[in-house]
Design brief:
The protein has about 475 residues and is α+β, with helices and mostly antiparallel strands. It has ten helices and 26 strands. The C terminus is likely disordered. The strands form seven sheets. Strands 9-7-6-12-10-11 form a six-stranded mixed beta sheet, covered by helices on one side. Strands 24-23-25-19-20-26 form a six-stranded mixed beta sheet.
């Protein structure tokens, strides 16, 4: 059997367009024309606005969408058309909520049962249910729990009554293979160590949650400044440190803050409207929200110079308990850890809290993150003018919706530390920190206290920076004092 009418309309909504009349919000009726044994076509009508189940589709059906019966059909001509339209947001959300079916994911012989739910708009890695998506996207999502040295060998959809379907990797949702009830997704991997995939670990920092399909990679800190992609800096070739390397607290904050910053225009005061709005705003991307992160049992896997892997265990509880009103930012930063290329950060969840609602970071967690990650960055212009740009970090607001938890930006400050989200235009010529300088160009590096940007042309106007009088001598490349221990 073909998929449901609800799934067809939701997944192919971008291809359903018509010229709408003034005041028309979109189609409300579906007419299914079905051929009988004698060749005659009979109509089956369904109101898309109602709560009754829509008719099941059969091969050969022709679906026609229309306004009210007495009004012109949407594909008619001669109307006073005013705009091209697609399915309205509220109708798509209503259809989404009706979609729910089971699938099986098999990874290297191990199987997991999942429920695909159209009414989900974010993914909770601790639950066996996923938002509506295609086979390739589901494989990428679930495979995040595999070790980094494994790469996809093949992806096959096994469907009753069909020959096996080999699915090509794609990042375009409209080109993905649509899943149906009872599908079995077979994902096979190959060990790529030693080899390019295994060597790629050194070019990124990875945050994952052990045993769960959740992983976030940070790679921008190694971006290049020269035409050959190699940063021009004051570092020896053997020195892997860069002033743009993120810290542990930065990485944890950005697991939620990066998504929140993109949702500034969200209807934050209406959870139902927010859930309906989100799929269209993200254009097929799936937000993963890891609930109940356990900041007291963090492990950092780090490669030693001899190739062996050492484990750094971190318990932030003492640091969280020590945060008082008078605690300075520098004191809070003592609990932080500078991450290095190749690090794998294992952030577990609090298993005892699973199944309970998560409303975001606890008060002690928020206090530590906000104290340590707030500060200012210095911008130096070629003419010698120096400005300070304040960075007031605030943890995002976690909003419960019918489609899952959605991270929204804080009402003040910034919930993102990404350069382009804070510094207007994100343009600069070089950046230094603690004596390390590089001219690598990336507007996605994470801002840190003691950053000093050299800008030859940019003249930021927002937010209004505090002006520092230029020095009497000609401008020099910025230098700063060494970082305190722990950073």
């Amino acid at each position: 059997q073909p998929g449901s009418l609800e799934q067809l309309l939701v997944e192919r909504k971008a291809g359903i367009q018509w010229q709408s009349e003034a005041g028309k919000a979109g189609p409300v009726l579906a007419t299914i024309w079905r051929s009988a044994a004698d060749g005659k076509r009979t109509p089956l009508q369904a109101d898309l606005r109602g709560d009754a189940a829509l008719p099941a589709l059969e091969w050969g059906d022709v679906v026609e969408l229309s306004y009210e019966p007495e009004e012109q059909r949407i594909f008619g001509y001669g109307s006073t058309a005013v705009q091209n339209s697609t399915l309205p947001e509220n109708l798509v959300w209503k259809l989404r909520q009706r979609i729910s079916f089971p699938v099986v994911v098999e990874m290297d012989g191990q199987t997991q049962d999942f429920t695909v739910r159209g009414g989900l708009v974010t993914f909770d890695p601790t639950r066996p249910e996923v938002p509506l998506m295609g086979a390739a996207q589901l494989a990428r999502l679930i495979s995040q729990q595999k070790p980094e040295k494994y790469a996809q060998k093949s992806l096959t959809v096994i469907r009753q009554g069909w020959p096996d379907v080999r699915v090509l990797s794609t990042t375009e949702p409209s080109a993905d293979f649509a899943l149906q009830k009872g599908d079995r997704l077979k994902w096979e991997t190959q060990d790529t160590s030693p080899g390019p995939k295994w060597a790629m670990r050194a070019s990124e920092i990875r945050v994952c949650s052990p045993g769960l399909p959740f992983a976030v990679r940070f790679q921008e800190f190694l971006g290049g400044g020269g035409g050959d992609g190699t940063p021009r800096d004051n570092l020896a070739p053997s020195n892997s440190l860069r002033p743009t390397q993120p810290s542990l607290l930065q990485a944890i904050a950005m697991l939620y803050g990066s998504a929140a910053n993109r949702l500034k225009e969200a209807p934050a005061n209406d959870p139902v409207a927010l859930a309906a709005w989100l799929p269209g705003a993200l254009e097929g991307e799936i937000l993963s929200v890891l609930p109940h992160p356990d900041l007291t049992h963090i492990r950092v896997r780090r490669k030693s110079e001899d190739g062996a892997e050492k484990i750094i265990e971190i318990d932030l509880q003492k640091a969280m308990d020590g945060i008082k009103d008078g605690t300075t930012a520098e004191e809070a930063r003592q609990a932080d850890l500078l991450l290095q290329p190749g690090d794998v950060v294992e952030l577990p969840v609090d298993r005892k809290a699973l199944g309970q609602p998560w409303t975001g970071f606890t008060a002690p967690q928020r206090a530590l993150l906000e104290k340590a990650l707030s500060g200012s960055v210095q911008i130096t212009y070629e003419a010698g003018q120096v400005t300070l740009l304040p960075v007031l970090y605030r943890t995002p607001r976690l909003t419960a919706t019918p489609g899952g938890l959605v991270p929204l930006p804080a009402s003040e400050g910034t919930s993102s530390l990404v350069l382009r989200d804070v510094l207007p235009d994100g343009l600069y010529d070089a950046v230094s920190k603690d004596g390390l300088l590089t001219d690598m160009k990336s507007d996605r590096i994470l801002l840190s206290e003691r950053f000093q940007f050299l800008c030859r042309s940019l003249n930021p106007t927002r937010p209004a920076p505090r002006i520092i009088p230029p020095p009497p001598s000609p401008a020099r490349r910025p230098q700063v004092a060494p970082a305190p221990r722990g950073r």
